[in-house]
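Example complex used in Figure S2.
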Amino acid sequence: MVLDLAAMRDSLNRRHSSVKDMTNRIRIGILGYGNLGRGAIRAIEATPDLTLQGIYTRRNPLTLSEETGLPFFGLDALDVTQVELDVLLLCGGSATDLPVQGPEYARRFVTVDSFDTHAKIPEYFAQVDEAARAGDRLAIISTGWDPGLFSLHRLLGEAILPKGETYTFWGRGLSQGHSDALRRIPGVKAGVQYTIPNEASLEAIRAGSRPNLGPAERHQRECFVVPDEGADLDALREAIVTLPHYFADYDTTVHFIDAETLAREHAAMPHGGVVIRSATTSDATNQVVEFRLALDSNPEFTGAVLVAYARAAHRLYQRGERGALTPFDVAPGLLSPRSPDELRRDLL
Amino acid sequence: MVLDLAAMRDSLNRRHSSVKDMTNRIRIGILGYGNLGRGAIRAIEATPDLTLQGIYTRRNPLTLSEETGLPFFGLDALDVTQVELDVLLLCGGSATDLPVQGPEYARRFVTVDSFDTHAKIPEYFAQVDEAARAGDRLAIISTGWDPGLFSLHRLLGEAILPKGETYTFWGRGLSQGHSDALRRIPGVKAGVQYTIPNEASLEAIRAGSRPNLGPAERHQRECFVVPDEGADLDALREAIVTLPHYFADYDTTVHFIDAETLAREHAAMPHGGVVIRSATTSDATNQVVEFRLALDSNPEFTGAVLVAYARAAHRLYQRGERGALTPFDVAPGLLSPRSPDELRRDLL
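Predicted assembly (696 residues):
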């Protein structure tokens, strides 16, 4: 595809500033074109009632537009006052992007994000809430699946069954944090780490027991490692399995593979996990509630959750809600494109 | 326990009409003292923020109060204008009780019920909505687990993952409708029927396939039957497994047992099931979302769900919401006794 880039820029800018969607679809912007942004684009394409208005990126928008046929813009396009967006999805990372972008954009847009640094959620919520209220906007933070759908199930389990224990297991899935730690070990050229729930513990809980679980009883860790050339594999394995915090406390398995195998078999980003509540409503009456995700693609699923919450954010904003919200504050019906009548008739 | 019944009646009536709960607990009334009502009582006892104000029954309230130490009243006590209830739980059945009681009591109380005749939900919703609006009250209908929590998961799966299929499996659990049908067969003295999900179908869906399932591929049926004395067991078995609608279309197993075994091993009311969404977010990228209940006591769990929705109903009423709602309309955070700050800090 060969395009006149100057003409394309003009065309995109015209579209961006003036086109209204005549079908009243909800106009979505995406900030950040990483894995999550790509997942959100696919999710928007699967909906009847949302339309992708623009993807905002630090990279070269003209090149990306040419390569993909999608409407890319620079970040400065979000500074134009007449930007026609109903909801802006913040698809950056929680470590450095969202702490800045969350409050910044919540002041000017209805936003949805997947902020996932659990310990900093109260602080982040307060900052986004203040910004959104100052700008008369609404923001839904920490959507996705954990935090997000898993949080909903921790809440549901406890609210309905007060006398019990809640367990969260992650995996089988690719852990970014543990893969990063693995790759920082000297002698590791490349590699990935999968987190695996301890099936024996899970089965015991499903059967009604409520064990106190240490780290090794919750998760196992499986590493696929491309070693540096000439590395002492026994020493490297030992360095990996004894890495404090990340691997030392777990049953950790290390597989040495070559770069081609890594590229061929470990490029996908599967994930998932289980939230399970085991509780009692009277003597010896056990009640077990389990929510389980098995995801071939973590970013595509997370993107799909963000997109459903974008629909809810737009509706809540139109009803006059303002400030920061979380999935705890969003009635489930608002996530669906269908009308309340239809939902009651077909799904209740 | 020997009580002066006249004094007790006076005492209860005084309590009923005048006592305010000084801790600001939400005051709950329960209409109907069957299995569900009993489950709701246990659930209220397990909460920090709700208090049982009265149980309203067609049976003799004085006898029940004496037997249990709980505050029973006749139905006429609900006609007294100064009844101090924040929420009335309607714990009757969907066939005959709720179609009358739902609209009747929604006119005068904030109500929560578990209306579960799926096909009649739109009609019931409209009637309760009209009554609640006429009386300036709020009602949450069709809580429990199906409809209720299972409905929420049918909605979540479809809203987040539009390209896929949703399957609901029930069991292993005691089915009242099928047990009733079983007991109406001539030659059956007593018996129960358990609905069992077809594990092979469930495993196929978990693995990412999306089959079209006939009844037999969804559920199996297991009957425990006490036959009439002298019954022809082969003929009776044949009459059971060929009963149209209830058993003929399924793999149905019949076990003949004696009355003592029935009483000893089949008095509990376990139930549960699975809602599973199998979907695709891009080519060959499967995403599977599963919600599963394994309940030792169906009525105790259902009662616990009603009680959590009673908390939400009270809060929504205090915020000015009116009319009929369903679980689709209730933000999850409203179900928890904890504050939004705490929920964000501890569960998000």
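Chain B touches chain A through 65 residues (CB under 8 Å). The two ends of chain B are 48 Å apart (CA to CA).
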